């Protein structure tokens, strides 16, 4: 990856990816397109001119804990005291 443009090489290193040299140039163009789009959105008319009212946050208040039976009632595969969920990782 020594001939890769710096942005692609840096991003690939950060993401711990191997990027073939023949893909680096295309990826560099795609990254530049994304960066240009984000810059255009940020500088678009009216961008950043939001309501200047402060955000009102409600104070954290303790609430009753959900009882185990109530939580398990909505579970896809209740098996007290736990509940099962579908497998989402392939072994392939």
Protein topology:
Blueprint: H1 6-15, H2 21-43, H3 68-73, E1 77-79, E2 82-84
Antiparallel strand pairs: 1-2
Summarize the structure.
By secondary structure, this protein is mainly alpha-helical. The chain has helices spanning 6-15, 21-43, 68-73, and strands spanning 77-79, 82-84.
Task: Give a structural overview.
The protein is mainly alpha-helical and 92 residues long. It has a domain at 6-43. The chain is 42% helix and 7% strand. It contains three helices and two strands; from the N terminus they run H-H-H-E-E. It has a two-stranded antiparallel sheet with strand order 1-2. The radius of gyration is 24 Å and the shape is flat.
Which properties best describe this structure?
92 residues, mainly alpha, two-stranded antiparallel ribbon, 3 helices, 2 strands, flat
Distance between the termini: 28 Å
Q: How many β-strand runs?
A: 2
Lateral strand order in the biggest sheet: 1-2
Tell me the fraction of residues in β-strands, as a range.
5-15%
């Amino acid at each position: 990856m020594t001939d890769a443009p710096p942005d692609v090489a840096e991003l690939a290193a950060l993401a711990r990816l191997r990027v073939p040299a023949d893909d680096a140039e295309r990826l560099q163009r795609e990254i530049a397109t994304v960066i240009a789009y984000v810059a255009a959105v940020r500088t678009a008319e009216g961008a950043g001119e939001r309501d200047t009212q402060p955000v009102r946050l409600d104070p954290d208040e303790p609430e009753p804990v959900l009882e185990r039976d109530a939580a398990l009632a909505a579970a896809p595969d209740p098996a007290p005291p736990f509940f099962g969920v579908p497998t989402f990782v392939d072994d392939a």
